[in-house]
Amino acid sequence: MTEPRFEHPPEEAAISYLADGHSLRSWFLTTDHKRIALLYLVSITFFFLIGASAAALIRLDLLTPQADLLTNEGYNRAFSIHGIVMVWFFLIPAIPNVLGNFLVPIMIGARDLAFPRLNLLSWYIYIFSGLLTLYVVVSGGVDTGWTFYTPLSSAYANGAVVATIVAVFISGFSTILTGINFIVTIHKLRAPGMTWGRLPLFIWSHYATSIIFVLATPVLAVTLLLVAAERLIGIGVFDPRLGGDPLLFQHLFWFYSHPAVYIMILPALGVISELITAAAHKRIFGYWFVAIASIAIAVIGFMVWGHHMFVSGQSVYASAVFSFLSIAVAVPSAIKVYNWTATLYKADIAIDAPLLFALSFIGLFVAGGLTGLMLAMLAIDVHVTDTYFVVAHFHYIMVGGSVTAFFGGLHFWWPKITGRLYNETLGRIAAVLILVGFNVTFFPQFLLGYEGMPRRYHVYPPEFQVLHVISSMGAALLAVGYALPAIYLIASLLPGGRRAPANPWGATGLEWTTSSPPPKDNFTEQPVVARQPYDYPLAHPASRDDG
Amino acid sequence: MSAGIELWPPQASHHAEQVDLLIGSFGAMVWLLTLPVFVLMTWFTIRYRRSHQVNRQHAPTHNLWVELGWSVIPFLLTLGFYVWATMLFFDIHRPPPDAMTIHVVAKQWMWKYQHPEGAREINDLHVPAGEPVELVMTSEDVIHSFFVPGLRIKQDLVPGRYTSLWFNASRPGRYALRCAEFCGTDHSVMGGNLIVLQPQDYAAWLSRSADGGLDGTLAETGATLFRQMGCSGCHAAASPVRAPALGGIFGRPVALSDGRTVIADEQYLSDAILLPNKEIAAGYPSIMPTYGNVLTAEQVNALVAYLKSTHAAQDSK
Ligand code: HEM
Ligand SMILES: [Cu+2]
Ligand SMILES: [Cu+2]
User: Fold this and answer.
1) Cis amide bond preceding A517, omega within 30
2) Pairing of the two strands B191-197 and B173-179
3) Is residue B311 less than 8 Å (CB to CB) from chain A?
4) Do B97 and B186 share a domain, yes or no?
C-alpha cells in the first residue's frame, strides 16, 4: 500500500484483470481483490449447493408427517449442517467477500484493499475451515443445530461436534481479517475528494458490517472453544452437572449471533441503496439518515441478544428491557425502507432485473422485519418462539432479504465483474420466479408456527401436512428460480457473449468510470472525486423510450 | 385422522384469547403502516418508469421533518403494544397464591409429572379446569421446552435450575403438548396431551391414580429421602454436626457467608443440595457434601417439597 499507486501511464490502455495471467498460480496466489472476489464467488456457490442439498432433504422428508427418507438422527444432522453451512460458509461471506471484495476498493478509488495478502489469506482460511466442515459431513455429521445449545452440545450430542466447532472457530479468523481489511481500507485509501459524506451507501454498510465482524466474532470463538473444552476435558462452564450454567452459553452465543444476523443483512441494505438509485437515476432521499442508520443498527444490534431467550428462564425484567431495545432496533431499518420508497418519487426508473430484485427485497425484508417486531413482543414470542414462525421470520430476512439482494447485486455488477451482458428477459423472469417461489415456501410457515408446529421436528401431527406440502412445492419453484441465473449468467461468459460497455446502466459511482472488466489496478488514472454520490440530474426534461 | 388444515389453534384459556387479540390488533396496525409503502412503491415505479413522460421537477432530496415523522410515529404506536404485551407476559410469571403446584421433570425424551397429592404420570398431564395450576419444572439432562399451543405458553426446562409458569385452563378438553427446544434424537416425538378435566372429574382421576399404589405424597417421599440420604445426620436437632436447622426454612431470608441475604426459594434449596458451595449459610462450615451426582431431579423435588412442608420447630441450635 506504500508503493506508487498507478504504474500504467494513462495513455497506455491497461489490460483487464481477467486477462492478466491465465495460469492456476495467477489465480491461487493472486493478491488482486477482484480475483479473490471471484475465488470467493465460486466457493460460496459450492457451499450454497451443499446447504441447499440438505434443505432439499429436509423439505422432501417433511412432505409427510412420518419419517420417510431419513431417521430422526439423520434429519437432525441434515438441518444442523444446513444451518451451519448456510450461515457461516454461504451467507456471512456472500455479499462482503464477493461484492464487497470486488467493489470496496473500486468504489472509493483505491487500487486494492489495504492488505492484499491478508485478503488472500482470509480466503485460504475460509477454504480450510470449509473443507473441515465437509469432513464433518462425510464423517457422519453433527446434530446440535447451528446454535450448539449446551449441555446438549457439550455433553449429550454424538457426532463430530468438536470438529464442527473447530471449523466455525477457524472460519471466524477469515471474517475478522476481512473486517480489519475493510475498516483500514475505508479509512486510509479513499481517493482525493472522497470525503465521508461522498461515500456510496454500499461503503457505509460495509463499514458497519466490518465493525461487527471485528467486535462480535471473537466472542463466538471463545464461546465455542469453551464448549469444545467442556466436551473434551470436562471443565465445568456450561454443564450444570459440572457446576456450570447452560444459560451462560445462550447469553454468549446470542451476544455474537444477534449481531451476526446484522452481518448478514447490513451489506444487503448497502446493495439495495445502490440498485435503487441506479435504477431510479436519482439521488437517494435522505443520504445521511440511510448512512447513519447502518451504524445505528450495528450499535443497537449489540444490545438486543436477550430477545432470543424470553422463555429460557432469564429474568422477566431483563426480558422487558430486551424487548424494548429490539423494538428500537427496528427503527433504523424502517427508516431505510421509507427512504428507498421516497427515492422512487419523481424518479426516472429503468425496470430491469436489478430493480425487480431490489423491490422484491424491500417487500420480503419488510415482512421479515415486521414479524421480527411481533417476536419482540413478549407475550407473542412466548407462543411462537421455537416454532415455524421464527423459521419463517429469519428466512424472510436472510433468504428473502439477503440472498435476493445478493442476486440483485450480482446482476447489477455482473457486466462490471465479467465484462459481459446477460439475457435481460431471463433475468426478469428469474427475479419474479424467486419472489413467488420464496413466498410459497415460507409464508405457510408463519401459519404453521402460530398453529403450534415446533421447529426442528422430523415427525409432526397430521393436521400440519397441507401447509408443509405447499411449502415443499414452493421450495421446488424456488430451486428453479435460483438455477435459472446460474444458466444464463454462465452462458454470458461463453465466447460470443455480448460485451458490456463501461457503464451499461448509466449509473454514477467510480466503479462505472473504469472499463468493464476493470484493469488490474482498477483505474488507469488516479480518480479524483468532486461530487456527491448519486449525483444524477434531478429532473429529466426529456424521457427516453427504451429501458 | 383428519388431515385437514387447522387454521387456528384452539383457545384453551383466557390468556390464549388475549394473545390472539394482541397479535390480531398489532398485525392490523402493522398492515396500516406498511400498506402505504407497498402501494407507493408500486405506483411510483409504474408512474415514473423511464418510458413515461411526466413531471419530474423539484424532486426532494431530503426532509428532516418527514424523516422524524416516519421514525417516531410508528415507534410510539408500537410502544403502546409493547406495554400491552409486557403486561400479559408478566401475568404468566406471577402465579396467584392459591395455585396448585405440579412438579415437572423432563428428560430425553419424556415428561414426568408429580401432583401435589403424590400422583404421578408420564407425558399426559391431567389438570382441573378453571383452577390456577403452577408448574415448577426442571430437567434431568438437556434443555427442553414445555409448549401447549392451546394455552399460548411455553417455558424452557433447564437442568440445574427451576423454572415455572402457570395457567388457568378454562375449557375442558385434550390439548397437544410438545417439546419446543431441540433436545436430541427424538425431540420431535417428545410430546403428550394436556387433559383438562372438570374439577370433580379431576378429583375422581386423582383418587383412581392414588389407588394405583404410588408412594405417598411428594413431601412424604422427601421425608424418607431426608433420612435415607443422611441429611438428618447433620441437620437434625440432635446432631453433633454444626449444620443449620431446616424446619420452616422455605420462604425465609437466609444470611450467607459472603454478606448477602437471600430468600430460600425452590431454586435456593435445590442449589443448596446440588451445589452446596455456591452459597454458604453464614456461620457454618462448608462441609455439606455435593449431592449433584447422587440424587435424581425427582428426588431433589421431593426433598424440596419436604422442606417446604416443614415448620419452624423449637429445635434452634
Ligand atoms: C427488524 C428488526 C428485527 C427484530 C425486531 C427481530 C426480532 C427477532 C426476535 C425477537 C427473534 C427471536 C425469536 C425467538 O427465537 O423467539 C429473532 C430471531 C431471529 N432473527 Fe430476527 N429480528 C430482526 C431482524 C433480523 C435480521 C435483520 C435478521 C437476519 C439477517 C434476523 C435473523 C434472525 C434469526 C436467524 C433468528 C433465529 C435464530 C434462531 O433461533 O435460530 N432478524 N428475531
Ligand atoms: Cu436477534
Ligand atoms: Cu425437545
Assistant:
1) yes
2) antiparallel
3) no
4) yes
- How remote is the CA of residue A87 from the centroid of ligand 2, in Å? 14
- Is residue B202 located within the same domain as residue B224? no
Residues A383, A386, A387, A390: is their CA dihedral positive or negative?
Answer: positive
Closest by CA to A449, choosing from B8, B2, B179, is B8
Which residues 364-393 of A have a C-beta within 8 angstroms of B?
366, 370, 373-374, 377-380, 382-383, 385-387
Is residue B3 situated within a structural domain? no
Residue B254's pLDDT band, with cuts at 50, 70 and 90, is confident
Cell 467486535 -> residue = A215
- What CATH number is associated with residue B129? 2.60.40.420
Q: Do A341 and B18 touch (CB under 8 A)?
A: no
CATH of the domain at B253: 1.10.760.10
Question: Tell me, what's the pLDDT at B210?
Answer: 61
In the reported structure, the alpha carbon of residue A250 is separated from the centroid of ligand 2 by a whole-number distance in angstroms of 12
How far apart CA A390 and CA A199 sit, in angstroms, is 35
Residue B57 resides in a domain = no
pLDDT value at position B199?
Answer: 93
User: Are both B102 and B21 inside the same structural domain?
Assistant: yes
What residue ranges line ligand 1, CB within 6 angstroms?
Answer: A 147, 261-262, 264-265, 307-308, 326, 329-330, 333, 369, 372-373, 375-376, 381, 385, 390, 393-394, 397-398, 402
Residue ending a domain, among B173, B190, B213, is B213
Determine whether the interchain pair B56/A346 forms a contact, defined as Cβ–Cβ distance below 8 Å.
Answer: yes
Task: Tell me how far apart the alpha carbons of residues A20 and A448 are, in angstroms, rounded to a whole number.
Answer: 53
Q: Is B192 strand, coil or helix? A: strand
Nearest-10 crossing angle of helices B14-47, B64-91: 160
CB A478 within 8 A of CB A438: yes
Residue B235 Cα distances to B239, B277, B303, angstroms: 7, 17, 13
List the single residue in A with minimal CA-CA distance to B153: A383
Which amino acid, one-letter code, is at A55?
A
Cis before residue A254, ω within 30 degrees of 0? no
- Cα angle value A75/A312/B113 (rounded, 5°): 80
Q: Are residues B252 and B299 in the same domain?
A: yes
Residues B238 and B311 in one domain: yes
Same-domain status, B73 and B108: yes
Among the ranges given (A302-306, A536-540, B83-87, B168-172), the one the predictor scored with the smallest mean pLDDT: A536-540
Domain count, chain B: 2
Query: What pLDDT score was predicted for residue A13?
Result: 59
Which residues in chain B have Cβ-Cβ distances shorter than 8 Å to A386?
A: 145, 147, 154, 180-181
Determine contact: A530 vs chain B, CB below 8 A. Answer: no
Nearest residue of A to residue B38, measured between CA atoms: A363
Residues B222 and B139 in one domain: no
Q: What is the ipTM of this complex?
A: 0.88
- The domains found in chain A, sorted by start residue, are 33-512 (1.20.210.10)
**Predicted confidence (pLDDT) per residue in B217-251, tens digit:** 777 778 778 877 778 777 876 666 778 888 778 88
Per the DSSP assignment, residues forming a β-bridge with B281 are B256
pLDDT digit string, tens, across residues A248-284 = 999 999 998 999 889 999 999 999 999 999 999 988 8
Same structural domain for residues B206 and B250? no
- Whether B190 is covered by a domain: the verdict is yes
End position of a domain, from candidates B213, B243, B263? B213
Of the candidates A92, A57, A52, A88, the residue with the CA atom closest to the CA atom of residue A74: A57
Among the atoms of ligand 1, which is closest to the Cα of residue A310?
16
Cα–Cα dist A545/B265, whole Å:
77
- Provide the domain limits for residue B250: 218-315
Reported as half-sphere exposure (CB side, CA atoms, 13 A), residue A533 has a value of 28
Closest residue on chain B to A154 (Cα): B142
Any domain includes B193 = yes
Whether residue A380 and residue B23 make contact (CB cut-off 8 A), yes or no, is yes
